[in-house]
Amino acid sequence: MRLISHLPTQRAAALIQTAAKHFAHKVTVEQADGVARIAFPAGLGTMTTDGTGIVLTIDADDAAAAERVRGVLEGHLLRFAHREAPQPLVWIEG
User: What's the rounded mean pLDDT across residues 3-21?
Assistant: First the structure.
């Protein structure tokens, strides 16, 4: 199962960096060229800059696993971006 969302922000690179450093204390994180891949136990979360914000992609074996990754990844990113007063993200199946 794949979920995709977009977080509009002017601080995409900084937020990706913050999230990658945060998650690297607990799970494997690969980061290069503005892309961070976070290997959560339930699935893979990928963050990429696109010029208008962060594109988030979650790949998991099933809907329940994707939802667990979504909750962790979205929750942390929204907290890291608190100065911008972000809205909850809208996710689509991809």
Answer: 96
Mean pLDDT, the chain, integer: 96
Give the long-range contacts of residues 83-87, CB within 8 A, separation 24 or more. Answer: 84/9, 84/10, 84/11, 86/7, 86/8, 86/9
CA distance 59 to 79: 22
The answer to whether the CB of 19 falls within 8 A of the CB of 35 is no
Could you tell me the two tokens for 53?
């914000």
CA-based nearest residue to 28, from 40, 45, 18, 19? 40
**Distance separating the N- and C-terminal Cα atoms of the chain:** 8
Q: How far apart are CA 46 and CA 82, in angstroms?
A: 20
Beta strands 35-40 and 28-32: pairing type? antiparallel
> In the structure encoding, which two tokens stand for residue 21, read together?
């450093």
What mean pLDDT is predicted for residues 7-29?
Answer: 96
